[in-house]
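Write out the bound-state structure for EPU.
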Amino acid sequence: MQAIQIHGGTPLNGIIPISGSKNAALPLMTLCLLTNERFVLRNVPDLADINTMKSLLEQHGASIKTLEDKNSYELKVENLISSEAPYDLVRKMRASVLVLGPLLAKYGKAKVSLPGGCAIGTRPIDFHLKALETLGAEINLKSGYVEAKVPKHQGRLRGGHIVFPSITVGGTENAMMAASIAKGNTIIENAAREPEILDLANCLNLMGAKISGAGSSVIRIEGVEGLSGVNYSVLPDRIETGTYAIAAAITRGNLKLINTDPNLLEAVITALRISGVDIEVSDRSIDISTSRKIKGVDIQTEPYPGFPTDMQAQWMALMATADGAAMLTETIFENRFMHVPELVRFGANINVHGKSAIIRGSRDLSGAPVMATDLRASVSLVLLGLATHGTTIINRVYHLDRGYEGLEKKLESCGASIERISIK
Ligand code: EPU
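---
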């Protein structure tokens, strides 16, 4: 088995290029199911989740070519081979359920495995299904699968009025993709406002869709007959950006993050500034430096534009090294404190009370052998490993490969002592 070994305690200094966004690229890739034309996607990060999505799309019938660089793909679906997303792939990656809307809208049927629970919560897909029913789909749950079809007499999905009971990123994406080629107009209320939703809408509009309001909580879609191919570049990864900003802060170093967009992570930048980190932003880069003490700052996770749940574990690692205490409240997922017992192994002082955790910062921490539980939890262990003296060994690194392109290389180039090792 592979593990990551870190000899920590060195401030990071240097430049880190930010990759394309995983959570934008995954739904964007499924758009190839909505057209029969050539679909080119650039700035796609080289990650395990992207490979899982490639396998899923290939088994639906997509031919996928890597273009001149490893981050650009051409995807084309001439004939659909299968409308089934099997358990083996959906179980590996929940974002597989994003094929549901496109398959249903373009081919009138889809059979997608129910994803089941995961390390951060139960994560049902009931809002996705209700939204598709509002667009006229017939849905049955059978033997662990969602079987969805458009009734014969209806021909294709029809526009409808969707009101999400609470904010869902994937649900908004599935509904938006399905409605783009439905008959008539759709309104999505209480829509997610994440930048990944806007990126998806921008790409759909270039393909000929008529979507307005994406990025706000009300999205209006005028259904069109069909969509054409496109050449599109994925937006920068705001969570990777935030993670490396914290890497600079937690090691008390200086990093310049390039190929990114500071507007995507205002809540994180604000929290960092309040904690005492110096941040300068320009159009496509962020400079992070530390000359003052870092103090405890409370945060609460919220849907965009609030503080992202995908940055909660990293913030907790930083707060474990701060002067003073901080309270973190997780409002999106019910079980997203799996990293706490692992952070405690470094000597961190953290107590969980229901949805909140109190962290009392300390400089008396040291490297430890720890276990990764999910993607963002894993990277919080890397961050604390980089900050603390001694050796940290992180087991189950496959979680990191799902979401951080070239993690060791990027960190090493800024002075980190980090390597992948084989352990029994
Ligand atoms: N929810 C329901 N029913 C639904 C859908 C969602 O109850 O039908 C609940 C979820 O259980 C959760 C909340 O609503 O408590 C929000 O879930 P959402 O649907 O917004 O999450 P998602 O689309 O499954 C995406 C990201 C996650 C990120 C969340 C929240 C992708 C591929 N994944 O998940 O990213 O945490 O939005 O911002 O875009 C990660 O990258 O590490 C990651 C987990």
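---
The chain has a mean pLDDT of 96.
Residues 48-60 form the longest helix (13 residues).
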